[in-house]
Specification:
The chain folds into four domains: about 270 residues, HUPs (Rossmann fold, 3-Layer(aba) Sandwich); about 55 residues, no CATH class; about 60 residues, no CATH class; about 50 residues, no CATH class. Helices cover about 30% and strands about 15% of the residues. The strands form six sheets. The protein has a four-stranded parallel β-sheet with strand order 4-3-9-10. Strands 5-6-7-8 form a four-stranded antiparallel β-sheet. A three-stranded mixed β-sheet has the order 12-11-13, with helices on one face. Strand 16 and strand 17 form a beta hairpin. The longest helix has 19 residues. Bound molecules: zinc ion. Zinc ion (ZN) binds next to loops. The site of zinc ion has 3 residues, from loops.
Length: about 450
């Protein structure tokens, strides 16, 4: 049974799926206005590793990862009516939709190069506005939200458990807010936006009961996780920097609207460091997979580097450290058997859930298992085999001489259990223990009487 650290309880707990045999998991996905960097990819790799570990224990996983193509912005630029998507669109001379499509495709390409098993569904925020409006309506009905000039705020003082995940208290948040920009429409400094009224320069806007506007970032994960995984699900993953405020706000929204806990286990991966700092676009110390490849590294070198550290520890990245993993990575990648080169799942970026398919290629190593019992070696990338039923195992062969399965030389002594006089066995592998060969061979395990004097089956 897989055990993981639950950020909510600060303890290591076993994953006990609510539905027998299937773990439901939601992973915070990329905001598609720029290429993801390898720090982002380390966070996404966490979900992949959990999936593979669960598959190893015989559990299937239904994973949902959101694509944020609208509404991801900081409080500071909220007030200017701009978000990162729009700024990128202006910089590149593309529409917001073109920017989102471009970087969503880039994200899938990078995740594939890193050997990350695709999620079952990648819902886009822009396609789930109705679900978000419905959830905000429920929060208003239950007294957890208020409207001010077309903008809907979450009132954190109405949710007593606010701060339980991040160990923040409302007093701490009020004190810490003195240095930040102040939104005078908020009743409490920690209140956050559920729906923002669109300003005059806003290009992407949606109708709502509170006027034209667009959703906040936090509400999209609450709405889409409930829409795809139901009102209770097993695991929620993300980078540690998402624990506050994003996941704290998500708990307040989901539990505030439904009135009961939604996520059983919160799992967070720690930062990737470069030059002593968290890798982040704002720090200017960003590496992408493209840059790694340009400098002669294989993407799986970076994957291997991630595997050298526990997911809850900060990992120091450097090009040299990445290069140093190459010999070990190459040894691990050496094919062991079978034809499968990847644990690739077919997946789509559609907004509706669909079945996952493992590539289904047979591997005797059986290092991974698909949701329906298919087995796949999961050792690399590039597999394009379609799903199929594993071929039947080859017929078992027996040798007259134990320990020499392909022996073609005469045995020098009879195998254990032989009843005849001391004689030689031909040693030829046999598929039929009830053959007529007179030469004593190794006893068939479990057989009794004269039949225990097995024959090699060649008829000689
Ligand atoms: Zn999220």
């Amino acid at each position: 049974m897989l055990r993981l650290h639950n950020t909510l309880t600060r303890t290591i707990e076993p994953i006990r799926p609510l539905a027998p045999g299937t773990v439901s998991m939601y992973s915070c996905g990329p905001t598609v206005y720029r290429p993801v960097h390898i720090g982002n990819l380390r966070s996404f790799l966490l979900g992949d590793l959990i999936r593979r570990a669960l598959a190893w224990t015989g559990l299937s996983v239904r994973q949902v990862m959101n694509i944020t193509d609208v509404g991801h912005m900081t409080d500071e630029i909220y007030d200017r009516g701009e978000d990162k998507m729009l700024l990128a669109a202006a910089d590149e001379g593309l529409s917001p939709e073109e920017i989102a499509a471009k970087y969503e495709a880039a994200f899938h390409r990078d995740a594939g190069r890193l050997g990350i098993i695709p999620a079952e569904v990648y819902p886009r925020a822009s396609a789930h506005i109705a679900e978000m409006i419905d959830l905000i309506g429920r929060l208003l009905d239950r007294g957890h939200a208020y409207v001010d000039a077309g903008t809907v705020y979450y009132d954190v003082t109405t949710f007593p458990d606010y701060g339980r995940l991040s160990r923040n208290s409302l007093d701490q948040l009020r004190a810490g807010h003195r240095l930040a920009a102040v939104d005078h429409h908020k009743r409490h400094p920690a209140d956050f936006i559920l729906w923002k009224a669109a300003g005059p320069r806003r290009v992407v806007r949606f109708d709502s009961p509170w006027g034209e506007g667009y959703p906040g970032w936090h509400i999209e994960c609450s709405a889409m996780s409930i829409a795809y995984l139901g009102e209770r699900f097993d695991v929620h993953t993300g980078g540690v920097d998402l624990a506050f405020p994003h996941h704290e706000d998500e708990i307040a929204q989901s539990e505030g609207a439904l009135g009961h806990p939604v996520v059983s286990m919160w799992v967070h991966g720690d930062h990737l460091l470069f030059s002593g700092q968290k890798m982040a676009k704002s720090s200017g110390n960003v590496w992408t997979l493209d840059r790694l490849e340009e400098e002669g590294h294989h993407p799986l070198d970076f994957r291997y580097l991630c595997l050298t550290s526990r997911y809850r520890r900060q990992l120091r990245f450097s090009p040299d450290a990445t290069g140093a993993t190459r010999p070990a990575r190459r040894r691990a990648r050496r094919p062991r058997s079978g034809t499968c080169a990847s644990a690739t799942l077919s997946s789509t970026t559609s907004t509706s859930p669909g079945p996952s398919r493992w590539c289904g290629a047979w591997s005797a190593t059986r290092r991974s298992q698909g949701p329906n019992g298919e087995r796949c070696c999961g050792t690399g990338t590039g597999c394009s085999a379609s799903a199929s039923t594993p071929p039947p195992a080859p017929p078992r062969t027996r040798s007259c001489r134990p320990g020499r399965p392909s022996c073609s030389r005469p045995a020098t002594r009879p195998g254990p259990g032989a009843t005849g006089p001391r004689a030689t066995g031909c040693g030829t592998p046999s598929t039929n223990w009830a053959s007529r060969c007179p030469i004593p061979g190794r006893a068939r395990p479990g057989a009794a009487g004269a039949r225990a004097a097995a024959r090699c089956g060649t008829g000689r």
